[in-house]
Every structure is written in C-alpha cells, then in structure tokens.
Amino acid sequence: MLLKAVRGKGLGNKIDPNKGVTAFPVVCADLTAGLSDELLLHVLSHVSDDPYPCSLVCKRWLRLHGMLKPSLKLKEWRFLESGRMTTRFPNLADVDLSGAWLSSRSKPNKILFTHNSITINLCTNAYDPDSIERFIEDQQVSPSSLDRGIKLLADNCPGLQRLCLIDVRRPTYNYNSFRRREVSKTNGVSPDLNDQYSQMDAKFNSNNVNEETNRQFSWQQKVDVSPSGGLAYLAQKCPTLQELVLNQCTDESLYAISAFENLQILRLVGTVSGFYHCTFTDVGLTILAKGCSRLVKLELSGCEASYDGISAIGQCCFMLEELTLSNQGLYEGWIGALHFCGCLKTLRLESCKQIDPIPGPSEHVQCCPALEVLELVRCNLRDKAGFSALVSVAASVKELCFQDCWGLDDETFKLLETCRQVRILSLEGCALLTTGGLEALVMNWKDLHTLRVVYCNSIKDTEITPALALTFSTLKELKWRPDTKSLLADCLLGTGVGQIGGKFFKRGGPS
C-alpha cells in the first residue's frame, strides 16, 4: 500500500529536468538559405581548387557542387545507366567512359592487365591472348546497355565537348581479314583489291554520297550500319562535341561518327594486340572524311588504312594539321597519299613495325609543303625504301624527333640530308647512330638552333671534333646526354667521386 501511495503522489514530477541547465540561443539552420543559387555558385567556385569538401555541408551544396563539375571519369557503368550521374553532375563537358566498359558481375581480382589507359581485372583462366580476348568479350557491357547509357548522356548533357568511349557493338569479322594482304610486287597493290578500290574511287569522286551508297560500302565489309545506335543519337543531341576518343572502332562506328559535323579532334583505336580484334578500313575512313570535314587533329591506330583512306582524309579534311599513325595495320602505298593533306603541319608515327615497304613510284611521292614537324616514336627504320619515301614527303620539315627507333644507323640517318630547313633535332634512344653520322648532317644544317641527344650510346664525347664543338657553341639550346656515363659525370661534377686517387685514397691515408 505504501508503494502505491508513493507512486500516486508522483514524486518524479517534482524534479525539474531543465533546472541548472543553461539555455542556448536558437540559431538559424542555414545562414546561406537567403542566397540565390547563382550567387552561391559564384562563391563556391572561388573557395578553393577542390570544392569537394563543400559538397558535404548539405544537400543543396551537394547539388551545387555537381553543377560546378565540368569533367568526370566514370568507373561504374551502372552509375550512368541508372541516371544518377547526369542528375548529380548536370553540366558535364568532358566525360571519360573508357574505365566503365566492363561489367561488375565478377568480383575484382588481383591480376591487373594494363594497356595505355585501359586496365582490366583478369581471372586466373585468362592467361594467353585468346583467353584474354574471350574474357573481355564476356565481361564487357552489352550493346543495348551501351546505347542506353550514351542516349541518357546525350539527353542530359547537350553541351558535351569531349567524350572518351569504348564501343562494344562490334560486327563479326573473319579473323583472316586481319592478316596482311598478299601484295603484288609489280604495282604494290593487292590484286584482289583493284576492283574494290576502283569502285571506291568512282563513288568518292561523285558529287554526293547518299545513304544507299554508304550502306553499300558497309555491306562490302559485312557491317550493319543502322543509324539507331548511341553514337548516331549523340551526334544529333550534342552538336558542339569537338573531341572524341573511340576504342574498338569499326566501319560501323565511323558511319555514326560522320554525323559529328563540328568534330575537330578524333582518336580512333581499332585492333589492340592481346585485347581485342576489330578494325576499320578505307571504306569507313572515306565515309568519315565526307562527314567530318573540320578535323584538325586525327590519330589512327590498329586499322587497315592504305592509299585510299588517307587520300580521302586529305581531300575532304582540308583543315587537318596533325596526323598520328600508330601500331601495325597500315598497308602499302599510304605515304603517297600524304600530299593530299595540304595543311598538314605535324606527322607522328608511333610503334610502326614497317613504315611502307612498297611506297610506289617516286613520281607519286610528293612533298607536303606545310609539314613542319616529323616525329617517329618506337618505329623500325630498317625499311630503307619506306623511310626514304617518308623523307621525300617531309623535305621541308623544320623539326625532327626520333625516340627509341630501331635501325637508325649512319646510312639511314644520311637520307635526311635532303631536309635542309631543319631547325630542331631531337634524338633519344637511338643506339646505332655514331658521332660521325651525326656530325655529317649537323654541319650542313645552317638553320639548326636546337639539338637534343639523349641515351644514344654510340655517340661518344671523346669523338667530338673541334668543328662540331664550334657548331655546338652557336646553338641556342643544347641538351647533351648521349649515354649514362656522361650523365653520371655531370651529376658527380665537383664532388670528387669517380676521380683517380680521390680524397679518401690519397697516399698516406686520411689526415
């Protein structure tokens, strides 16, 4: 009874919970609530170089941070396909989707396979090129998923200016088509392609190339050129796209890319050894040249291009200033088509096992008058005929760059004597070139003002003649690191290390 009485009196109600507690003033939840989005965006853009911490304040700041993000490199394709990427970042102008082309069905493995900017998590069953290629085909996103993602990106980012993508919509090619064609030694052209090339020339020289002609081109290559793909839709929705990087490129892809009328920078990658086999030919390049006439910079890699494709690019893309050709796949006779590129200023060859074994008659190899820069990186220059034809095309070049090239000996280097306007010469990793071969040309180039020699082991400091040393003194810029010994000597200069009888080995021992 006593316990019930105590409970009934409510002793707990006599205790004041706020007694002795200091009352704090009420503060407004968000002091920036009165600021407009435009003003707050202006403030956030000047806070720091990395505005990411500001996105953690509240949902509004998170949304505004997404509006300030102009570029993005995607790692997960579902983030795009679900619509979250375009909602989170509505003002994207530069998007890289090359890292999200593989699905995330399997768990990530510890085996990483990397080629340039592409990195793949391999399983233990992928151990040779064939198994790696099968693994990639199984793990990449589906073509329908690719189209949905690109269309979603095009609808929500109409101001897109740069896109990097890997096209998984590959037609079924016969693997034998990737083998080098049998070349006739008489005219340098494969006999079975004469009829096809004559048909291409007739259609290329016509005044208009309609859709039926384009479909006939693609039918010859067994490619379905349905214009309903994601790239064709992107060309309609993003007319301001200026730069495109496309891997796994095919003739079908080039048909869609030809709709980008304002495209200026284009990088196309076809076959990548050890990754995938898909290529594009002269047919696709001809269609591309007809549509993208404003190209300024073009890079072709892993393709089956020859005279017809390069000539089509030169005749239609009259603003082309920089051309990069890399990897194997270029067929005979392509050098003879370079003179069609009237505004070409920079020609770069990268990882070419053969330059052009049969460049054709010398009267067809003409000089490019606007060509100023010739760069050869990791190229095999043992092909004397191809290199000689290349030098004839680049007779008016002003800058020469050789990096890690095989076969650049004194005899091959002497072919450059016809280039009399050279002002800049850069040699790196050319082990066969000697001091005498270098001196023979450097002494004759009166306009030379910059010389860079790095890691050319056959060029010795002790073989420099007084005349060559006098020429070095007149240069505006000289970088002389011909071998590792000379580099080490410069690094140890003044330290006493490396000298005979150094300060630690004097007679009588240290004092």
From TrEMBL:
It comes from the Eukaryota. SUPFAM superfamilies: RNI-like. InterPro entries: Leu-rich_rpt_Cys-con_subtyp, LRR_dom_sf. GO terms for cellular component: SCF ubiquitin ligase complex. One of its GO terms (biological process) is SCF-dependent proteasomal ubiquitin-dependent protein catabolic process. PANTHER family: OS02G0658500 PROTEIN, PARTNER OF PAIRED, ISOFORM B-RELATED. This is F-box protein.
